[in-house]
Amino acid sequence: MPTSQPVTETVILHLKEGVNLDNVASGTGANTSPAVPAFVQLTDTVKVQQGVIKSKINTSLFGLSVNLLLNNPVDHALAVATLSNHWYILDWESFEHITAFVDSEGHNSFMAGMGQVFDLEVEAPLTNPVYTRFTSDASAALAAPVTEVAFFTLPNGAREDANTTIEDALKPSMQAVTTVGKSSGGAIGWVFDAKNTGDAAPDGESIALHGVFGYASVDDHVKWRETPEHAQVIEDIGRSPLGNLGLGNASMPGVNIFVPDSSMFHVKFRAGL
Questions:
Q1: Residue 19: strand, helix, or coil
Q2: How many CB atoms lie within 10 A of CB 73?
Q3: The pLDDT value given to residue 246
């Protein structure tokens, strides 16, 4: 992918123990933790970077509370760890702008501020940022009350062929997700930086696709997954050109307290401050 094209950066981090950013937008948490003003400063720093698409800044929290667990038993330690995942998604005009920010003098102080809010020693489900070029607008999916975020892998040798087949191979499935699954919007994108997998992909493979799908609730999404139509979508993808190239689910056991041992997350996004 040419670096001059727009790119979406996705980062997953762990909040430090005791840090709660739920009230940042209202300002009610400003006097309770030094992490809150540090977080606001981080957000302000990102906003002014050259190349950030201002209209699409999103600061996100994995903010689904434990009482939404559909009456399923859940390990409390796992629930707490999962709810500490903090996400942010940024749209940039190009990958060169991301590189320029990383190489800038201000990036070191930015990372120091990150250390006040996030536990950078805890390994996240993805060890590095993910850089995606979505094939359609992801705004509706990210604006939904709940967003399913999923990652898929491919053998490294199949990446080039797969990149040319994404839209045609997945178009029928995307239609079913919105018409039958009642998703409020969805988008699939190509992950063009293969050095992001950690333990998420087997040897010789890497994360290649990134999907986001919006729903009214986790319950709505789970109900869709239990339908025959959803089973047919999975079967069709397996028979598609992408399936024949070796498309698989990223391995992220324990990251989703609603659908254990899956490659997806449920995230509640909110607009950047």
A1: coil
A2: 6
A3: 92
Q: Which two tokens stand for residue 83?
A: 């709810």
With 0-12 / 13-18 / 19 or more C-beta atoms within 10 angstroms meaning exposed / middle / buried, residue 20 is middle
Question: What pLDDT, in 10s, does the model give residues 157-185?
Answer: 988 888 888 877 788 888 889 889 899 99
CB burial string 112-139: b at 16+ within 10 A, e below: ebeebbbeeeeebbbeebbbbbbbeebb
Would you say the pTM of this structure is higher than 0.70? yes
- Residue 87 is predicted with a pLDDT of 80
φ, ψ at 130 (rounded to 5°)? -110, 130
Is residue 53 a contact partner of residue 6, using CB atoms and an 8 Å limit?
yes
The whole-number pLDDT of residue 120 equals 84
CB of 125 within 8 A of CB of 255?
yes
| Residue numbers in the chain where pLDDT is lower than 70 | 1-3, 22-33, 54-84, 124-127, 194-198, 252-263, 271-273
241, amino acid identity: P
Task: Assess contact for 110 and 41: CB atoms under 8 A.
Answer: no
CB–CB of 245/152 below 8 Å?
Answer: no
Give the residue carrying structure tokens 């089973």.
231
Q: Which two tokens stand for residue 262?
A: 């899956």
Q: Distance (Å, rounded) from C-alpha 141 to C-alpha 204?
A: 31
The DSSP line for 27-74 is TTTTTT-THHHHHHHHHHHHHTSTTB-GGG-EEEE----GGGSTT---
CA distance linking residue 220 with residue 224, whole number of Å: 6
